[in-house]
Automatic annotation (TrEMBL), chain A:
Gene3D superfamilies cross-referenced by the UniProt entry: MetI-like
Xref: PANTHER family: INNER MEMBRANE ABC TRANSPORTER PERMEASE PROTEIN YDCU-RELATED-RELATED, PUTRESCINE TRANSPORT SYSTEM PERMEASE PROTEIN POTH
Listed name of the protein: Putrescine ABC transporter permease
Classification via InterPro entries: MetI-like, MetI-like_sf
Annotated ABC transmembrane type-1 domain residues: 83-289
Pfam families the record matches: BPD_transp_1
Family note: Belongs to the binding-protein-dependent transport system permease family. CysTW subfamily.
GO cellular component, one term: plasma membrane
Phylogenetic classification of the source organism: Bacteria, Pseudomonadati, Pseudomonadota, Betaproteobacteria, Nitrosomonadales
From TrEMBL, chain B:
Location in the cell: Cell membrane
Source species, domain of life: Bacteria
Gene3D superfamilies: MetI-like
Biological source species: Methyloradius palustris
Chief location: membrane
GO biological process: transmembrane transport
Name of the molecule in the record: Putrescine ABC transporter permease
Gene from which this protein is expressed: potI
Amino acid sequence: MSKILSYLRSYRHGRQFVISVPYVWFILLALVPLMIVLKISLSEMEDTSVSSMISWVQGWPTIKLSFGSYIFLTTDPLYFQTYMSSIKYALITTVICLIIGFPFSYFMARSPKHLQPMLLMLIMLPFWTSFLLRIYAWKTLLVNNGVINNMLIALGIIQDPLPMMNTPFSLVIGMVYSYLPFMILPLYSNLSKLDLRFLEAAADLGTSPFKAFWLVTIPLSKAGIIAGSMLVFIPAVGEYVIPELLGGPDTLMIGRVLWDEFFSNNDWPMASAVAVVMILLILLPMALFNKYQSDQAEVKA
Amino acid sequence: MNKAFGKVWMIAIYVFLYLPIITLVIYSFNDSPLVTVWSHASVRWYISLANDDVLISALGLSLKISFLSALISVFFGTFTAFALHRYKRFMGRTLLSSMASSPLVMPDVIVGLSLLLMLVSLQHWLGFPERGLFTILLGHSLLGTAYATVVISSRLREMDGKLDEAAMDLGCQPFQVFKLVTLPLLLPAMVSAFLLTFTLSFDDVVLSSFLSGPGYSTLPMVIFSRARLGLNPSINAIATVTITVVTIAVIASSFYQSRAERKRKLEVAQAYSDANQ
């Protein structure tokens, strides 16, 4: 024990140790699992287990790839529609979060300094309470004999309950509700650092407040807008719980399809193929974009 | 944009955020078995909660998993943040940082599926692990490590590197520097990372559903299966209990953190004035 400690106390070995601990952890739990998903997506499903990729032909190992799941993915239009509708709902969610979150963050960054920590905590508090329970709460509000409909009928505004539950409307409400803090937090941290002298300069040069907002504030907060939009868009595409609790038969989401392929059809290669395409579709463009951004930053520096 | 509009806008957003939560709390005291029809106030759903064995054992399992996975997450998160922040150049740094952020950007269903398929392959080859507490714990710890890394990294970034250098100038070994200087300064961030990963684990339903085996249902899994079937007054009571606990915990921890920060500033000021005398 003391030998190990003295070994680690030297700077070089200590450094190797500090780096290798998280390395091993993430390779085992993040990288290897993804490789296995890729492998299984290229296998065939046999009765009880997934076929092995390497088979022995006359004493030689041969790699056998099966593209069956991917071919099925492209021939059945249901998958294409589901991917498209996931992206559609994720985009709608992102845009609404941006439209209502931007003014909010803007005003929060302009409110008196001593109030800001409390305003921020009030945004974070729902985030700390269970996400599942908050989604469930919308069900109580939106169902036909729910709180909102009961209230509107009691007030005499409507005669028959509005069918809000299990529609695209309830899905989008649930998504905006859960992801709004992820838009507000990066926007707020960006906008609170905004140098107000730029706006003063614009006013001195005779720009109207509205034009200054459009030409100065928006471009300067681009980084926050992009960060917030990504934080909302990516998880929204793969969302499973919200469409399951609040969505209806006509709100297809790819997370639900993956879940069903796995748990109901027990088709592991198909579920893996759905996952691989989802990664290619949303994460690859984002990774390329991130790389482009950091390259740009290096050029500027 | 003008001030009055700003106030209205902010209040509207807060109402939007809190309306569902407040509704759940109010209706948890509703006597009627029909969730949305108000009859009269009672605590019958809290009594039925206290007698619900399925829920109580699920709560026990969830608490156990959340506590352990938060500990594991803070442990590995501290290592990851250190490796990424203190050593700017080493082979595969980009790989480590992208692996560390992958659980944050990847949809839960993909993380759950990939971990499960790996564990199933492992079981096929080695005969273990059985799906259950251990496998859920692994999944939660992976996600938690990614979040803990973010929290601890941001603290490391704003920490003054000069303190470490001063300690080294005074003859400290790297390990001593960590123990005597860095760790005490990092402790508040580690506490908030623990709280964050605890709540994330306590709240997770997708990863747990993928990774659990028969007989291992966490509290969110039980709530989710009941919520899928329809409205259920006992869920309102659970919600009220968790909301109360969480609110108290958040307020207490922010109080603790602001006090720790004040104490640290006082100590620094004291040290400066001692030095100047």
